[in-house]
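Problem 12. The chain below contains 191 residues. Write out its predicted structure in token notation.
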Amino acid sequence: MISTMSNLKQAGILPEYEDMPLSAIIGYVDVVGFDSDNSNDSPWAGLDCTHWQLANAYLFDEPITGVKGKLGLFDYPIDEKNMPPAHKVEQDFPFIEGDCLNVYVNDRCWQELQDDDSIFSIDINDPYVVDVLCKEDSLELKPVKKIRIIRRTANKTQTDVITRKVTNVVWDAYKDEEGKDLTYKFVCEII
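Solution.
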């Protein structure tokens, strides 16, 4: 889950931790079904649990703040016919076209690339990303010769793009303070 959230932050889908609203209702989603088997491959799915199947996620343009959360489900007085303005959540995951890896990044990552654009990395522990970057039923990386980095802005009107040649693609292990492997990253050197 940490790798998935890290990639979602880098892509601009989630805000940075310090910018996330607290004590707030941030949006709404449709519950379209339930699944009790253990075949669910979502990083959020626990074993021997009922998994909620969700669709049509919307984020409020401005969160409803000052809401005290509770464990489990609880009622909140809101008029479903008069919801605050919201926008549909679009998850623009990395994708490969031919030999080009396309990734979306937030403003912070974009600025870091302006300062030093020689290396780009993505957390590979994220099951959504490993399916894009690795060959089927294998951890062998797909061939990538170019990377197109697309800047994501809040209103999605910005179209800044960096396209670079990839000179090397590797797995890299990042270690915690005790020297244990913490996460694996897909790292590409770019020119």
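Discussion. The longest strand covers residues 51-65. Students who got a different answer should revisit the alignment rule from Section 12.3.
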